[in-house]
Amino acid sequence: MIFYFTATGNSKFIAERIAAQTGDQIKDIAACVRAGAYSYALADGEAVGLVVPVYYYGIPMIAGDFLRKLNVSPKTYSYAVLNCGGTTAGAGDQIRLLFPVDAEFGIVTVDNYVPMYKTASEEEKQARLDKAERAIEDIISHINNRSFGVFNGCTGPFPRLVTRAVYPLYKHGRKTAKFTVNEGCTGCGLCESICPRRAIALKGGGPVWTVPRCDICLGCLHRCPAGAIDYGKKSAENGRYLNPRVRF
User: Fold this and answer.
1) What is the pLDDT of residue 248?
2) What pLDDT, in 10s, does the model give residues 79-121?
3) Structural domain includes residue 247
């Protein structure tokens, strides 16, 4: 069983590729949290996989909330795959504190934090995803062999120090007040329906953020069909991204 969290498709892309080779089923962490589903019975010898993105060199808040309550039995082999735009730093340590895993892997996909960075060119996106496909094949080999250890070449220098320094900016930030909606909004309601925290409600024909903080997954921003949602001052000019190798 593979649990994944995704806003733009990168984690789902990885989870689907692994599941296709291992025969495991995949489960969306956001859907599990919304349903209050935290207990799962495994088949004999079935592995437990976690596939999550890296936010500010740590894991999304919703992933941490899920792992604190996750109960699988019988637990045999488990692993975590962290996907990032550059480095994972100490995000793996955060997972192990909440849900000890036997193996840790890291994959560089496509950075999509548009409040700070421009999205890559189409050519660069495809090149990164091609490289990620090859990395996934190596990870699948480790999973099938039940390898133990840290096989993450994306941690970067001083990983624990970097996470300790930067992650609090995310944990104590995440302010929904930075979201804005422009006149292109059609009131379709997609943002409301996909928000993993149910932090968006349609009012007056457009989205309103109803809580002061969310996970800042930016799924609402990237998946808005009208491109009407922004976060901060730079996201409007920095592009949008959805993994082209998965379906939502």
Assistant:
1) 87
2) 999 999 999 999 999 999 999 999 999 999 999 999 999 999 9
3) no
Q: Are residues 102 and 204 in the same domain?
A: no
| pLDDT tens-digit readout, 187-244 | 999 999 999 999 999 998 999 999 999 999 999 999 999 999 999 999 999 999 999 9
pTM, rounded to two decimals: 0.96
Residue 49, φ and ψ in degrees, nearest 5: -115, 145
Based on the fold, state whether residues 156 and 182 are members of the same structural domain: no
Helix axes 91-98, 61-69, angle to 10 degrees: 30
